Amino acid sequence: MSPRKAAALRDRDDSDLRGHLIATAAQLLAEQGGTGLTVRAIARAAGVADGVLYNHFADKEELLAAALRAHVDTVHRGLSPLPWPGTASVAENLIAYLAQGLAMHRAVLPVFASLLAQPAVLAQFGATPGGERDWRDRLADYLRAEHELGRLDPAADLDAAVAMLAGICHDEALSTLLPTASRPTPPTAVGSVIATLLAGIGSRSAPSA
């Protein structure tokens, strides 16, 4: 580590250094996953002594949970804006939502999969609120708004629709982690998925909306 970098790190206040450690760990998670990621590796990448991490976190699990949350929030912030209810057609809008969901899951699920052997990290992550609204929640809000606008069947099971679209995202992302069973969803299939879904929940009076 260069003297200039060492001096800069020494001059950081506690909150700034904590954020630096989280950002460093989040970058390592995104690049290489959590399997085998050690405190020493994180400290070296951050340019600090190993023991410094324990001045800010109770253990490695707490740091990795914070880093995982930071990674997920970063992915959400990088997603394209989603269409508003009542604009374009429901089919076009849901294609945009599903395409974004697929992109989001491709970015985060491999990192989650690499941490399956560390349930304490995932438990702490689940107990930590995110700084960005989750894609699934945005999708649910969108469908409820379209339902209120009358552009979906009044009897539509919106929770089931959200679960179906989220399940497709999980299946596609997880399949890429299993080379022998890989079956990624091609872009042309996204429209077919939405058409099939809308056959069940679309407005009966305006099926094209």
From TrEMBL:
Alphabetized GO MF terms: DNA-binding transcription factor activity; transcription cis-regulatory region binding
List the keywords (alphabetical). Answer: DNA-binding, Transcription, Transcription regulation
Q: Does the keyword Transcription apply?
A: yes
| Residues annotated to bind DNA | 38-57
Question: In which domain of life is the source organism classified?
Answer: Bacteria
The HTH tetR-type domain is annotated at 15-75
Family annotation (InterPro entries): Homeodomain-like_sf, HTH-type_TetR-like_transc_reg, HTH_TetR, Tet_transcr_reg_TetR-rel_C_sf
Give the matching Gene3D superfamilies: Homeodomain-like (1.10.10.60), Tetracycline Repressor, domain 2 (1.10.357.10)
List, alphabetically, the PANTHER family matched.
HTH-TYPE TRANSCRIPTIONAL REGULATOR RUTR (PTHR30055), MYCOFACTOCIN BIOSYNTHESIS TRANSCRIPTIONAL REGULATOR MFTR-RELATED (PTHR30055:SF238)
Q: What is this protein called?
A: TetR/AcrR family transcriptional regulator
Tell me the organism.
Nocardia panacis
